[in-house]
Amino acid sequence: MAMLAPRHDAVMPLPHAYRTPLHLGTAFGRLAELTRFLNWLASQGTTSLADVDEDRCEAWLAHRRYLLDDEGHVAGERSPATRRAAAQVVADLVTHWELFT
């Protein structure tokens, strides 16, 4: 919501928050990637965003980078857009972390 309403009183003081509202389609795509990230964290046993560290972020990026076959072996790489979205979701959380305190 902060990306859709960057002039909201809770968002304005954030030093690195977006100042221009995102297009609804862009926000929807980021929400979809955020959902994937949070579901992945839950599957890894992470129960709090406070537990997300650099190693967990690296594992997420690797998870979203590679296509796996039915046996879990690397079968290829995902598109640059998919890898960029995986990194962007982490950056968005860092940018807006004060909203989660």
Show the helix and strand layout.
Layout: H1 24-43, H2 54-65, E1 66-68, E2 74-77, H3 80-95
Antiparallel strand pairs: 1-2
In short:
The protein has 101 residues and is mainly alpha-helical.
Structural description of this entry:
The chain has 101 residues and is mainly alpha-helical. It has helices spanning 24-43, 54-65, 80-95, and strands at 66-68, 74-77. The chain has one domain. Helix content is 48%, strand content 7%. A two-stranded antiparallel sheet has the order 1-2. The protein is globular and about 50 Å long. The two termini are 16 Å apart. The model has no long low-confidence stretch (mean pLDDT 92).
Keyword list:
101 residues, 7% strand, 48% helix, mainly alpha, globular
Total number of domains: 1
Proportion in helices: 40-55%
End-to-end separation in angstroms reads 16 Å
| Cα-atom radius of gyration | 15 Å
Mean pLDDT reading:
92
- How many helix segments? 3
- What is the string of SSEs from the N terminus onward? HHEEH
Structural class: mainly alpha
Strand order of the largest sheet: 1-2
Query: How is the quaternary structure best described?
Result: single chain
Shape: globular
Give unreliable regions as ranges.
Answer: none
Beta strands, count: 2
Largest sheet: 2 strands, antiparallel
Report the portion of residues in β strands: 5-15%
